[in-house]
Amino acid sequence: xxxxxxxxxxxxxxxxxxxxxxxxxASLMDPYPLHEQVREAGPVVYLTPWQVYAVARYEQVKAVxxxxxxxxxxxxxxxxxxxxxxxxxxxxxVLEADPPAHTPCRAVLARVLSPTVLRNLRPVFEAEAEAxxxxxxxxxxxxxxxxxxxxxxxxxxxxxxxxxxxxxxxxLLYGDMVFNANGPRNELxxxxxxxxxxxxxWIMRRCQRDMLAPGxxxxxxxxxxxxxxxxxxQAPMLVRSLLSAGVDTxxxxxxxxxxxxxxxxxxxxxxxxxxxxxxxxxxxxxRYESTAQTFYRTTVRDTVLAxxxxxxxxxxxxxxxxxxxxxxxxxxxxxxxxxxxxxxxVAFGAGIHGCVGQAIARLxxxxxxxxxARRVRRxxxxxxxxxxxxxxxxALDALPLRLIPA
Length: 406
Hints:
Elements: H1 4-7, E1 17-18, H2 25-29, H3 32-41, E2 45-47, E3 52-55, H4 58-66, E4 71-72, H5 102-112, H6 115-139, E5 141-143, H7 144-149, H8 151-161, H9 170-180, H10 187-206, H11 217-227, H12 234-245, H13 248-263, H14 265-273, H15 278-288, E6 294-299, E7 303-305, E8 308-310, E9 315-319, H16 320-323, H17 358-375, E10 376-381, E11 386-389, E12 394-398, E13 400-405
Parallel strand pairs: 1-2, 3-9
Antiparallel strand pairs: 2-3, 4-6, 5-13, 6-9, 7-8, 10-13, 11-12
Helix pairs in contact: 6-8, 6-17, 9-10, 11-12, 13-15, 13-17, 14-17, 15-17
């Protein structure tokens, strides 16, 4: 629940105050009715269950993301205010930091994940995608999550980081806990924390220089420390940032894209007839079923947003998924249309804290979907999908599919 300091910052009298809980099981299962209620109540609302300000319209979400001087990340990008409570783990040097500390760390990751690096990785990533799609085709009936959406990112991304193959499933447990921790201390967080105990030590050990293969992203981060771009104490933390943010989000993005294509056969038919639409299809899936549903910022000073005064040191909930279906921004926002050009969606955030790895996530999504489009005539849903509930992520646990060869 909110701290006593937050309780003293009363919202403006005329501000819409809604008794809606985005972390209820019903809302996590089907968030879109709540999103519409918040979005249509006003440009800024106050959610009484957690006593936070919330923005769900595209214009205001983009404004908060873009103003890092007023809406800071260093107090945490989840519900907990690090100005009032210590974080459960050392803060991320990128996601939970503000300039000037944020700047050199972000620069190192941007260089490690540069367009040139990704162009060089493309043939390797493509070969892995082709091999995996071929294996799935041989099986015919698959769990789209376990057989494809999880296996591919767990192979190509940790390979690129330089992580050994053994124990990579630990990345899933760790990522689930990290994103659950952005919400309240509810049962979802408690269960993921129970599972992740020994995994945290495993993660940090794999971030050390001697555990990383030469030439990978991890080794390059340590080389940046040798040059003095960052400190040697920061190097393993930056490797951890890559591992905690670069797997779960891509897995869920791919899983959601497969779900969208299986449940919209007319859109998959378009992709099958024109595989060059793969990149747009992946971005449209990110808009339509946003992997990261929510993130927070904290006001560093008294401010005014869309005419609404917000006091200093208040949490502001950005409903990214709601913004991505805002009819003020997108025509027919509740339709999945792969020929849409969804440029500007906020599934990866925006501003200086926009996802530094979004280009590599898009590369993975584009390659998998384009290869599926060329080799699979139809994707059929053959069972009821199972959701994996998370305080931040829109995720599937199982997706029964049949792949019909081209």
